[in-house]
Amino acid sequence: xxxxxxxxxxxxxxxxxxxxxxxxxxxxxxxxxxxxxxxxxxxxxxxxxxxxxxxxxxxxxxxxxxxxxxxxxxxxxxxxxxxxxxxxxxxxxxxxxxxxxxxxxxxxxxxxxxxxxxxxxxxxxxxxxxxxxxxxxxxxxxxxxxxxxxxxxxxxxxxxxxxxxxxxxxxxxxxxxxxxxxxxxxxxxxxxxxxxxxxxxxxxxxxxxxxxxxxxxxxxxxxxxxxxxxxxxxxxxxxxxxxxxxxxxxxxxxx
Length: 255
What we know:
Blueprint: H1 2-5, H2 12-21, E1 33-38, E2 41-46, H3 55-59, H4 62-71, E3 74-78, E4 82-85, E5 94-98, E6 103-111, E7 114-119, E8 122-127, E9 131-132, H5 155-167, E10 174-175, H6 181-185, E11 188-191, H7 195-207, H8 209-212, E12 214-219, E13 222-225, E14 234-235, E15 250-254
Antiparallel strand pairs: 1-2, 3-6, 3-9, 4-5, 6-7, 7-8, 10-11, 11-15, 12-13, 12-15, 13-14
InterPro entries: ARB_07466-like_C (IPR058593)
Protein name: Mucin-2 protein
Domain ARB-07466-like C-terminal: 150-247
């Protein structure tokens, strides 16, 4: 009788809801259900839990992205072909590909193995570790001076032309096919350049002989070959003229 005559205990779930609403110890968003009295009819209202923002979501907030893009002032070069992503996590979508040797702005922000760059005013993400402070050497660099080599030459001759053209764009004349020896086979090219610039071209090719598939070089009556590379540049006999002695061009023979 004592129990039956006592006042009903306050609804504990309703009490929790009241505490949460006042910010005391419980976040209302974390409540699975709350009890509500509606005109004498007590019902249960389900509330969805709100997940906290991930680190990626915080970084991708519009204000944070704008600030990162506006502050980006450091340039880097891509050292390989890179996929472009919309964000750094598993929710990312690929939106393009960035070629090797391209110069981009970086924001300095990184997450989950990706770095943020600025491309055409937009924030994009690329795999970390493939951006360099130094412009990389690109064998297949872009030739913009309109020069070319004859169709049918070896792939290595094409690579030599592309590399020299990209790095020495003032050189526009390349001699390939003619009726004798290695030129007739399409594995030799004469790069028409002289003086100190000729030595710069010759040394550039020698430095990258492996990537370019070069067998030997001749310039200014000097020869360098892969087979005798330990001897460096070696003198040659006088062949009687400026052209025959290779003073007005760098001769390159490839494999």
